[in-house]
Every structure is written in C-alpha cells, then in structure tokens.
C-alpha cells in the first residue's frame, strides 16, 4: 500500500505539472489517464486488461461510438472509461457513458475523466442502469490523503464487483451525512438547536423564541468543540502496535493513545483454539456486510464459523485455516450455477463443495452465495423437525 500511495502522489505532481499542456483528448489519454491505469494494475500494454476504442453490440448506441477504454478482470469487462481533454467540463458527458454502461450487463463501474478529475458511477438505484450522480469524485489538483486510499478499491488485484457496490453505497451515505452535518454546523438551524438543548437537559420551555435566543451560543459551542478536537488530534500522536493478546493485557488500559491490532486470540478455556487474524478479519467483513443481522462467531479446534443468532445448527459457513490453502464451506449446496458464479469470480471449488479462500477479503467474491446461506439460516422452515 505504501508503494501504491507513493506512486499516486508522484502522479498527482505530474498532473499538476503537465496538465495544462494536454490540450487535446489524445494527449490527455497518453500523459494523464494511461499512467494512472498502470498504477492501478491495468497495464495499457496488456490487451487482456485494457482495450482501447472498445466496441460492442450496444442497443441504442451509434455504430461509430466506442468506449475509450474497457478494463478487464478474469477475461470479463468490468469498467468503462470515457476520456476527455484536460480542460473539458465533465458534467455534460455522463449520458454518453451511461449508454455504454446500461447496455453491458457485466460492467459494474463507469468512469469519466479529463485526467485531472475522475468521476466514478455504478448502479445503486436501478440495477444495470448507471446512476446520474457519481458515488466518488476525485480531483487530483485538490486531492486529500483519504482520496488516495479510496482509489485502492479500483486496483486490478482488488477489483470485486460486490465489494465495490458496498463501497459505493457506503461512500454515498457518508457524503450525504457529511452534507447534513456540515449544514447543521454552519447554520445551527432551530431543529439542531432544539436537539442540542434537549440533550443538554436545559430546564426551560423550548419554544421558538427561546431557541432563537440561544442559537448563537450553540453555534459558538460547535465551533469550540471542533477547534478543541483538532488541537487534541494534533497534540496526541497515535502509537500503532501489533501484539498478541497476552502482551496486550499488559498495556495500561488508561492510555488512550495506544491502538492495538490483535494478531490472534487464544481461548482461555482451551489453548488449542486459536482465533487467527484471518478469522478475525473474515468475521469483521461478514458483520459489516450484514450489520443488522444477529451473527455470532464461533471458533473450534477444527474450523471457524459464523452462526445466525448463535445457534449451532444455523452456521452460514465453516472456515478452515488449518490447511496449506484455507477453505470455506457454506451450509447450502454448491450447484452448477453457483460453481459457474464462483469460477467467474476466480474462486476454485473442490469436489465436496468447499471453496479455496486464500484471503479473507475474497469472501466479497461470493457475497451472493453468502447471502443465500444467511437466508437459509433465517428460514425457520429449514430447521423444523420432520414428524415421524
């Protein structure tokens, strides 16, 4: 990741330095767009990853229209890119990109760029119909560190359709929430003032006249809290440690500046049950995918599993890291359709239905099957005892 971020930083400086010299679309492609694709692992010199002037049988699209770039993973197009010159305004060009996107079922991401600004789209509102608004916009002339980290989601070795949809949805919500919070902070409207006064248990009748009288005080309090938070953040550096759980217990729990990254957890009742970092990571991913579902992790000497409502017979999967290659086994049959789905996602299925899961994050490639497994566990009919 450090090397990736460093290459992005160098690219940003490159964009700032030569961008204004890219007066044509072709120059912008060669000088600004293709170098970024290469950083993302989509080598422009590898036709199995990048195809220029991509043409397909798009209904409603003129025969002369072509997608500037189609990016490929596992021999399937996954992302379309529409390129414009450096000085172009991107706003009026999104409909052209949407025509390509809407006509190709395998593509999950569309992007339009002038080499300086990148706008990424997907289909959160209607499946296979590109959203009107981008879920992520990055301007290299106004970039922030968090923007660089977000671009890692689009790397060739990390490109998973379901994962990107969750990322897009999460990013969309965050942007909407930030807009509301920013408005509350800047304006401190009456509803926000009422909420603050209620939470502060002000012993007064909260009528409009009183709320308007304390509105300036609330705005001042908000500004002071933000200022105090910034100052505290600058004066309190975070120390990152990576310690086994036994060492972690020796750290003074009152030291709020220490953040622990646990490598494994040893079961206090059975030291043969060791929950590894990969198992912890898998648990984190699954609980984030289904935040409103009651899921409980259970580790044994043989495998790690996630249980619906903590019931032993309602396990979504069993994850075994005690092999040269970790495997995951779902509680539902892997039929030919699911095998084809897993194969397209780059996952290898064994004869017994177990799936090689070399990295915890590969579970994103099987989100559909994971969801089917959860639905099976949630259906009480599947666990009723048959009457004899």
Automatic annotation (TrEMBL):
One of its GO terms (molecular function) is DNA binding. It comes from the Bacteria. It comes from Acinetobacter larvae. One of its GO terms (biological process) is DNA restriction-modification system. The keyword Hydrolase applies. This is Type I restriction endonuclease subunit R. Keywords: Endonuclease, Hydrolase, Nuclease. The keyword Nuclease applies. Residues 53-124 form the Restriction endonuclease type I HsdR N-terminal domain. It holds the Pfam family HSDR_N. InterPro entries: Restrct_endonuc_type1_HsdR_N (IPR007409).
